[in-house]
Specification:
Elements: E1 2-7, E2 16-20, E3 32-38, H1 41-51, E4 55-57
Parallel strand pairs: 2-4
Antiparallel strand pairs: 1-2, 1-3
Bound molecules: zinc ion.
Residues 19, 23, 25, 58, 60-62 line the site of zinc ion.
Length: 63
Protein backbone atom coordinates (compact mmCIF):
# COMPACT_ATOMS: atom_id res chain seq x y z
CA UNK A 1 0.00 0.00 0.00
CA UNK A 2 1.11 3.54 -0.69
CA UNK A 3 -0.32 6.88 0.33
CA UNK A 4 -1.48 9.14 -2.49
CA UNK A 5 -2.06 12.84 -2.93
CA UNK A 6 -3.57 14.94 -5.72
CA UNK A 7 -2.87 18.54 -6.70
CA UNK A 8 -5.38 21.03 -5.28
CA UNK A 9 -4.73 23.44 -8.15
CA UNK A 10 -5.08 22.69 -11.85
CA UNK A 11 -2.09 23.09 -14.14
CA UNK A 12 -2.05 24.89 -17.49
CA UNK A 13 -3.89 21.98 -19.15
CA UNK A 14 -6.68 22.02 -16.52
CA UNK A 15 -5.26 18.77 -15.17
CA UNK A 16 -4.32 17.67 -11.68
CA UNK A 17 -1.47 15.24 -11.04
CA UNK A 18 -1.70 12.18 -8.84
CA UNK A 19 1.31 11.72 -6.56
CA UNK A 20 2.72 9.27 -4.08
CA UNK A 21 3.57 10.62 -0.64
CA UNK A 22 7.32 10.73 -1.21
CA UNK A 23 7.16 12.75 -4.45
CA UNK A 24 9.60 15.62 -4.71
CA UNK A 25 6.79 17.85 -6.03
CA UNK A 26 4.69 17.62 -2.86
CA UNK A 27 5.42 20.45 -0.50
CA UNK A 28 2.61 20.39 2.05
CA UNK A 29 -1.05 19.64 2.73
CA UNK A 30 -2.15 23.04 1.53
CA UNK A 31 -1.16 22.32 -2.07
CA UNK A 32 -2.04 18.62 -2.20
CA UNK A 33 -5.18 16.80 -1.14
CA UNK A 34 -4.65 13.53 0.73
CA UNK A 35 -6.49 10.67 -0.98
CA UNK A 36 -5.63 7.74 1.26
CA UNK A 37 -3.74 4.47 0.95
CA UNK A 38 -4.15 2.30 -2.13
CA UNK A 39 -2.56 -0.91 -3.36
CA UNK A 40 -2.06 0.34 -6.90
CA UNK A 41 -1.65 3.60 -8.78
CA UNK A 42 -4.73 2.78 -10.85
CA UNK A 43 -6.88 2.37 -7.74
CA UNK A 44 -5.78 5.77 -6.48
CA UNK A 45 -6.34 7.23 -9.94
CA UNK A 46 -9.93 5.95 -9.95
CA UNK A 47 -10.55 7.60 -6.59
CA UNK A 48 -9.07 10.92 -7.70
CA UNK A 49 -11.15 10.83 -10.88
CA UNK A 50 -14.24 10.77 -8.69
CA UNK A 51 -13.26 14.17 -7.29
CA UNK A 52 -11.80 15.86 -10.35
CA UNK A 53 -12.49 15.71 -14.10
CA UNK A 54 -8.93 15.47 -15.38
CA UNK A 55 -6.34 13.55 -13.39
CA UNK A 56 -3.02 12.25 -14.68
CA UNK A 57 -0.33 10.22 -12.97
CA UNK A 58 2.72 12.24 -11.98
CA UNK A 59 5.63 11.29 -14.28
CA UNK A 60 8.09 11.61 -11.38
CA UNK A 61 6.45 9.28 -8.85
CA UNK A 62 3.35 7.51 -10.18
CA UNK A 63 4.02 6.69 -13.82
ZN1 LIG B 1 4.68 13.20 -8.13
Amino acid sequence: MAEFFVDRAENAENTRLLHKKNCVDISNDETHRYLGSYATVSAAHNKASGYYNKVENCPKCAS
